[in-house]
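User: Please predict the structure of the protein below. I'd like the answer in structure-token form so I can feed it into my own downstream comparison script.

Assistant: Understood. Taking the following sequence of 877 residues as input:
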Amino acid sequence: MRIERWRYTLPLRLRSLFRRNRVEDELDEELRFHIDRLTDEHVAHGLPPDKARLAAVRAMHGVEQRKEECRDARGVRLLEDLVQDLRYAGRTLRRSPGFTAAAISTLALGIGATVAVFTVVNGVLLRPLPFPDPDRLFAVTLAPRGIRTAGPSMADRDYLAFAERTHAFRHVATFSRFGAKLTGGDEPALVAAASVTGDFFGVLGVPPAIGRTFAQGEDLPGRDAVVILGDGMWRAVLGADPAVVGKTITVDGSRRTVIGVMPPGFAFPGKTQAWTPMRIAPDPGNTLLRPVIGRLNPGVTPAQARAEFGTIAPHLSTDDGESLLSGILPLDELVVGDIRRPLEIFAGAILFVLLIACANVANLLLARGSVRTREIALRTALGAGRARVVRQLLTESIGLAVAGGAGGVLLARWIVPALLALAPEGRIPRLESIAIDWRVLAFALVISIVTGIAFGLAPAIRVTRTTARESLSPSGRTFGPRHDRTRAVLVVVEIALALVLLAGAGLLLRSFLRLMSVDPGFRTDNVMAMSLDLDGTPHSTPERMRDFHTRLLDRLSSIPGVVSAGAVNWRPIGDALIRGDFHIEGRPDPQDLTVVDKPAVSPRYFTTMGVRLLRGREFTERDDAAAPGVAIVSRAVARLFPSEDALGKRITLQTTPKPEDWLTIVGVVDDVKQGGLSEPLHAAVYRPYRQVSHPFFLGHMTYVVRAASNPAGIVPRMRAALRDVDRNLPTGAIVSMSDVLERSTADPRFQARLLGTFASLALLLAALGTYSVLAYSVVQRTYEIGIRIALGAGRSAVLSMILRRTAALAAAGVAIGIAGALAATRVLETALFEIKPGDPETLAAVAALIMATALVAGFVPALRATRVDPLVALRQD
């Protein structure tokens, strides 16, 4: 009699999952009911009860088969099998605690490092910016080649022309960051501030939480005494006063009225907490670059905006259209800066480590699978299909990966802070966005499952390939060496991947060492630097600024233990720099040197900094505003006079010079690494600050002091000297020039350390993989080795046999790895200094290290092979 299939709804399917025993009892009861009914029908037709019962069971065509049909009809068979597989996998893994611990630990290490790097990448690169419609925000850049910029930027005059011509952007703004002293609350505070143009907040689309933003015309002199505060500064300085609008505070000595407070979390650019209006006043003779941001008009696509920019750019103030780096970039390029490329490289490197970890676990599974051959053969002989067995083995590998992923997430919680602490201060932007959130957890789950399939599939297929007859037959041992090609291939892959990472780390290390050997053009020993900003009253005029600098230099020079003191407005290896064009009297402008640095310095500055004076003299106190204009040029400028001495020649820093703008060269000094050790030496024209009349060149000054010894000991006296001259000026950080020089190399040091850490981890995993393969090979070949020794083979011959295989595996991995390194290390080209990606010395050293490590990893199994007792080996067979 035909049994009708049950109609299962979702609740019933859930019952069969979570109340399986009860559902099975109901199924047994229903089948018994049908059998009893059929039995009664057969009895009614005259059959004896026992024969009627047998006929009823036969009519069912097998009770167990009907049960399977009913279970399939529930629609949860796959889930039931999965639960069964998970339970079996758990029992199997618990029976092998050593294997389970080794596999989970290896995976936790690889997945944990991967999750940690992804956490940083997610927070910095993948999260959208915290502004409305961030995909409509762009940075505009038009920067001359050869001029160092901190990111996308434009010259002031180009910004004004672009803002007037563009129709693609609804709002365009520019800004400049500075440090400010705010007073007006309970305590003065040093804050990060920014001067911004009127459309700045309109571009970002963030309204204030209290008050308003800048109105049109508030950048004009007389109307610009206003300020907008960040939420943190409003709470810290003004005690979260809700009636803050209309109150006045002092910003760098200038009284300003608070007109608004921005909402919590808004701190663009960087960690800004105060915004003041800025009016653009271009100087035709100088290049002043600032970031420019814009918001697209509704309906305008980025492609249309770029096309419009392409028509505007040729009409902007450029000398040579070929000499410009221009474009319209997403705003996150400005926020992220040049950290994107290193993060992408580190993400790729850590994937190599994860692949090596997967290869290691795959090797463990292959070794374990050979032990389970008879178990799997029995399951196959009892009716399990190959696909079913493979699914069971994959369940075990995925279970291992998920457990390793859980451990990796816990490990990542420790790795992420260590990673951020290893980075130079301020190098990683958007720190507030870096956290292990649901995106990171989802990534960890996905990467765990993918990893489990990746390292589990090949061993599962390999183990199930052997037939049940071969596995269960009592065959004898094979006398030749049993070469497991799959495991050998995995070891070769591990070695190759490790070599690629080691090659990258070696290149970065050699690049860093070469960078550290560069002569910056000055001496940093025993030199302390103190930077000040004189914006606002009482130092509002050039005369007052010059007087302040003179008095403070006199006080610094009189400190006991000070050898000399000097000042420069833009110190070497600094964050800011003024460059511009210059002209030589009676000569056409040079074609190969169009712009120069324009520092203003004090007498004895070159002596204090240890900058070599090549010819002529330094500035003296007599080079003041009443004396004829003089200048000292660097070696690069002096080369423009190849056949004559530069001393006595006249140059000007103005585009249209007046008679008093001509400067007589009185000295030649060595070129200085102004921007950084990796940058070319800068040509510079130095002026005595006493002859500078523009407030912009005098408002910021760095005072350098050379001590006879123990430079840190004079720091309190430097602060005291500043208080004696003006106790209302905030004292910024006083740093040693040695620390400044060291911080300038912090980024390449960080990259070398981090990639070196990844490479060391990869090398360790590759060595463990090599060891495991050879150790397993020795165990598998114990009988063969015993026969060799019994037939007279010496211990040295056995040792040589194992080490030859080690060398063969390592050599294959090195050959493949070198080819991979030649291709992969090209991504490091922009991060390298005076070294090429395919540097043969680095590749040779890395190859030698890999070979040595592999031989060390293979020596222990080889030594174990020499200790095989032939009698014991033959008796075990």
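That's the full token string. The chain has four domains: 10-75, 134-337, 340-516+746-876, 535-728.
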